[in-house]
Write a structure and sequence with these properties.
6 copies of one chain form a homohexamer. Chain A is α/β, with parallel strands linked by helices and 153 residues long. Chain A has helices at residues 2-9, 33-43, 65-72, 84-92, 105-108, 110-119, 129-137, 140-147, and strands spanning 13-18, 50-55, 78-80, 96-98. Chain A binds chain F through residues 21, 24, 32-35, 37-38, 41, 45, 50, 52-55, 57, 70-75, and chain F through 21, 24, 32-35, 37-38, 41, 45, 50, 52-55, 57, 70-75. Chains A, B, C, D, E, F: Belongs to the archaeal NMN adenylyltransferase family.
Chain lengths: 153, 153, 153, 153, 153, 153
């Protein structure tokens, strides 16, 4: 998706916001923000592009979310998202938003990847090689299998 | 409901607590506290009554909720609520609670209004004119339709 | 000050933001947000003006402060402040800011009023009558004298 | 369960962590941390054992949870838990974890006790006498019945 | 001080609130709540008294502080404190407060003990033996000396 | 300093933690985390080194600070710091800490740079060119001069 956005838009700098950066060890967010930074940065290392991977902690206040993102991120001109809430918030704040291109959405989306990890199915082909390596290094499969058995602490 | 409470109880000052004041742009709480203050104040402007519309942010701690409300609100003698948790908390703190009178509860309640807004149905007759005007001014229908498509950020 | 702003600017609606609304019982902020709402509303009751007194809790994040204020407040066009930080934040967010007119600043400012309250000196002439009444009703002088003896809990 | 852990493991000091200490007055956590401390301490008073009942407030960040527990608790060598997330977090932090012995899990677990309280069924035999006394003293049955009617404030 | 309170007042249960329980590794609060629980509990182990050592995290809101303390603590009838703010807050909430007896206040107070620890002077005689043992076990002197060199992170 | 650390230690990946990432628009922290990321990344762009600039928000709890840093950061083996508190916290958590080399500390430190900015003196020679450019672009001098006139909101 990043490759496609960059090609189509003559972009030379890209900020990747890592949402819910304070979450980890849950079924929905199994990995820490730091682990996700490693995954993303290693996956994009061959692109000829300045990238920033910026963790964005949840403030639980939609009304200040755009200001919060802006304060944590290098300056940006255009936002990419397919999340209707994110689009609404950026547009109310006067930020131009574009839809991200999506390929094989039903297979590549996070939900499918996580489900395969939990069931011990073949998840590696769905992610970049660099992501699979980080997941292995940190014992990510055992972690997501375990934490998905509970509702929290 | 406010008219009825005022008539029945010989009240000359009324505090309207605006709960979850930190929430907005969600299906359950589409409007900011400031927008809700405008709706309420404009709706009650013709009543001969001193009213305070006080935003109450969630502290996520039921045990301190009454103290929190009291610190944010002008002094009050009686609380009105039909929420069993709110009634329980006020009563444990020694505050007199009365049930609010309810008319046509199944139609006028927030859930019904929000559902109609989301489906593009006829919601205006369910709210005071002043509320409908504020919703229009802020583009409230587009907002609730969009944010109701997601689970959050 | 409010009278002067209203006269000079042909204003018919006024929002008064009550800062540090979560603070109370300290030397700097002896009164709760609710008590301050009462003081302000009662002081302005004779003005022919729609006023909103809106508590603004501290988020301890300057970068989202303007968004936070906007979400808690009815819509406003112009902000009045003499605080350089507040002016800077509003201007960065594109909000027009005007200086508040100040009379006898060195005597009427909060610091002087609080000092007199603590020392048992003549503070009543420095505040509107309605404020003095609220302070008396809530035992405000004893409170500020006591809490000014400590650094906190 | 405590008796069994103590017998089997030659333990002379025990820390009981009271999770979600900031929660109360909800269907899942009807009692305050202080009420739960009373229940636990009174139930264990006859054991020849130094016990600490330590409230642990939720930080909503799994990644710092173990550090948080350690900072609130006297030093401990072994953790007991059957919660897969808790086990995962302690193990990642290098803390030895053992499964708690469980008796009649399907009857004695919190869910069953709370359901009986809500339905007005016979819950007392499922808890130690000291717990039943505290629940009675604080009007716990009325509280849980009421708060289970709502989703929150 | 505890011995004196117990003797004078015919008390059989005592709750010791550990304030600023979320603070540690600072000049003012060098020890974690858990370490402080150990110090207090071990110091009082020979008293014939049921004691609870309850960590109280700061909420940074004086107006809800009493409710917060009550929710974290077993039920209590009388509060002991010499802090004017604490006395004011308890009295406004209708809780009876008594002054704690103080002996050699200028020597035994925390400030003096901490100063001696930082300067490498003779601090042990100012604290119960059990406290000195815990401080030694956790490397407390090196810690307070180091953290007192900075203003924070 | 970064050049020196990299040369001396055969390092090929570097994480730069941006502390107090939630602070901005104050005399001590005039710039947002995002602005600081830009300054750092642009300053290091010519180094042959994988660098991560990671914002670390304050949690105001020293006892969980190391876990928090670890969760936000890619994995690291050695920490560099000259802050005694940071050194103490990392060492208690078993992380190797090394002192950063410092050149001309009394001139290059943040305090000196900020003082010159506020007084309108010659600050540019004290910072990398890329930093000076970012400060200019964002109107940083006017901002720090203004916000240093106040104590906060």
């Amino acid at each position: 998706m990043v490759e496609r956005i960059v090609e189509d838009n003559d972009i030379d700098e890209l900020v990747l916001g890592i949402g819910s950066a304070d979450a980890s060890h849950s079924k929905h967010d199994p990995f820490t923000a730091g682990e996700r930074i490693m995954m993303i940065t290693k996956s994009l290392v061959d692109l000829d592009l300045v990238t920033y991977a910026v963790p964005i902690e949840d403030l639980e206040r939609n009304s200040v979310w755009v200001s919060h993102v802006r304060s944590m991120s290098p300056d940006f001109d255009i936002a990419y998202s397919n999340n209707p809430l994110v689009i609404q918030l950026f547009e109310e704040a006067g930020v131009e938003v574009r839809q991200s291109p999506m390929f094989n959405r039903e297979v590549l989306e996070g939900t499918e990847v996580r489900e395969r990890m939990i069931k011990g199915e073949n998840w590696q082909p769905l992610v970049p090689d660099a992501v699979a390596e980080v997941v292995d290094e940190i014992g990510g499969i055992e972690r997501i299998q375990r934490v998905s058995e509970t509702d929290g602490i």
